[in-house]
Amino acid sequence: MVAAMAREFDGLRPHCASWESLAWPIDFAVRATVSNQPWILAANGPGPRLALEALAVASNNVRVRAAVSTGYAGALDPTLRAASVFTPSEVVDSASGERFRVTNPGSGILVSQDAIASSASDKAALRDRFQAAAVEMESAAVARWAASKRVPFYCIRAISDTASESFTIDFNRVRDRNGRIPSSRVLWQALARPWARFPDLFRLQRRGREASRALGDYLRECRF
User: Is 100 part of any domain?
Assistant: First the structure.
């Protein structure tokens, strides 16, 4: 199960019968037991490159029976509410145009790109281009990897920001050369316009907590 950030798994932890940290060379790796199922939870930063690194490390250490892309997503469909869970029927790679079907799909299209959709106009453009309902950064890479290994691919996302919302911080600008988002760079941007950007950060933190709880409650009922 691959996410971008460890905190995306915060809502799942209360539902785990066991939680064992793993000394793997990625940002976060845990072996957890959920409803008597063994899961590997991995997070290594945003974007396809870092997701693939997490998958490579996991597959070198355990037998992967299914690959699940999870975590937050931004809404493109105005009817999707914050902290709602979105399970797409299809994932489309914005760069290549490749499309991947999801095992046991829900409904709607998820567009996956190596950039943060940071404004309402960006989100509207993606919706018009791909007829997609939500956007995130790792799922196409996870889907392509799962197809290459011939294992089932699942995608379960929680909405962290709505289609009408824009960020006051340029998260794409603060990403480092590996694609990660150092908190120090975010802080420096926030300090440039603290009256506008700190409230935005507090809102994002609150939304993240709500999305993590919703995601954890949903995942505990899942079987892969």
Answer: yes
pLDDT in tens, 49-65: 999 999 999 999 999 99
Q: 124 in a domain, yes or no?
A: yes
Residue 135 CB partners (closer than 8 Å, separation 6+): 73, 74, 76, 110, 111, 112, 113, 117, 123, 126
Confirm if 167 and 200 have CB atoms less than 8 A apart. Answer: yes
Neighbouring C-beta atoms of residue 146, cutoff 10 Å: 22
The residue segments making up the domain with residue 86 are 2-167+209-219
Look up the CATH number of the domain holding residue 45: 3.40.50.1580
pLDDT above 90: residue 105:
no
Tens of pLDDT, residue by residue over 63-72, are 999 999 999 9
Number of domains in the chain: 1
77 phi and psi angles, rounded to 5 deg: -80, 120
Q: Considering only CA atoms, which of 139, 184, 183, 189 is closest in space to residue 167?
A: 189
Q: Is residue 129 part of a domain?
A: yes
